[in-house]
Amino acid sequence: MTIIEAIKEVLKSEPKGLSSAEIYQRIIDQNLYQFGAKNPVGVVNGEIRRHCIGLDFPTAYPVKHFAIVGKEGKKLKFIVCENNKSGKSVKQSQNVIDDNTEFLPEEKIASAIDEHLQQIKQQLLDNIMSNHPDFFEQLVVELLLKMGYGYDKKSGIDVV
Predict the structure, then answer these.
(1) At a CB cut-off of 8 Å and minimum separation 6, what does 21 contact?
(2) How far is CA 74 from CA 77, 97, 120, 125, in A?
(3) Are 11 and 68 within 8 A, CB to CB?
(4) Residue (of 44, 50, 76) closest to 63 by Cα position
(5) Which of 5, 36, 58, 82 maximizes the CB count within 10 A of its CB?
(6) How far apart are CA 87 and CA 110, in angstroms?
(7) For residues 106 and 88, what is the distance between their CA atoms, to the nearest angstrom?
(8) Rounded Cα–Cα distance for residues 39 and 46 (Å)
(9) Integer Cα distance of 104 and 82 in angstroms
(10) Alpha-carbon gap, residue 143 to 153, rounded angstroms
(11) How far is Cα 41 from Cα 92, in angstroms, rounded to an integer?
């Protein structure tokens, strides 16, 4: 039996959901899987999150088996969803995890990259908008030349 199969087996009888630690304990109690890792709860949490609807990051899998149904304190509660349907929308799941501290390292990195790119886009836009309109016209001319339109800056490109 794989870890995913063991998690699904445990969650089938828990329609209200369980946390990663609770799932791990049930797997051990029912002798469904033998863990060799130093942090088996982390392994369970990582496998669930990589297969969870609404959680997309570089190492997440396209096939989703689980969904987030709520929180107990700071711990997320997961359910198994047959045929990728949980009755809960991805948006609802995302709202539950917005302030979660259980993010995987890959999720933290992906989130930081997204935030950084948004900041760069905003800074670029702010810098362009704070300049004189002639600067913007020159920027557009240079962009068009780089894209292969025209031959040089004096070849008659008029962006007015």
Answers:
(1) 41, 75
(2) 10, 9, 31, 37
(3) no
(4) 50
(5) 5
(6) 27
(7) 24
(8) 11
(9) 24
(10) 11
(11) 25
Asked if pLDDT for residue 148 goes beyond 90, the answer is: no
Backbone dihedral angles phi then psi of residue 99, each to the nearest 5 degrees:
-110, 25
Q: Which amino acid is at 24?
A: Y
pTM of the predicted model, to two decimals? 0.60
Q: How many CB atoms lie within 10 A of CB 92?
A: 15
User: Six-digit token pair at 77?
Assistant: 């509660």
Residues 48-89: pLDDT tens digits? Answer: 999 999 888 888 899 999 999 988 888 889 999 865 444 444
Tokens encoding 142: 């240079």
Longest dimension (CA), the chain: 78
Cα–Cα distance measured from residue 100 to residue 141, given in angstroms and rounded to the nearest whole number: 46
Tokens 């040089």, residue? 152
Structure tokens at 41: 């709860």
- Say if residue 134 is exposed, middle or buried (CB neighbours under 10 Å; 0-12, 13-18, 19+): exposed
| Residue showing tokens 């039996």 | 1
Domains, the chain, in order of start with CATH, read 3-101 (1.10.10)
Using alpha carbons, select from 82, 16, 78 the residue that is nearest to residue 52.
78
Please give the single-letter amino acid code of residue 136.
F
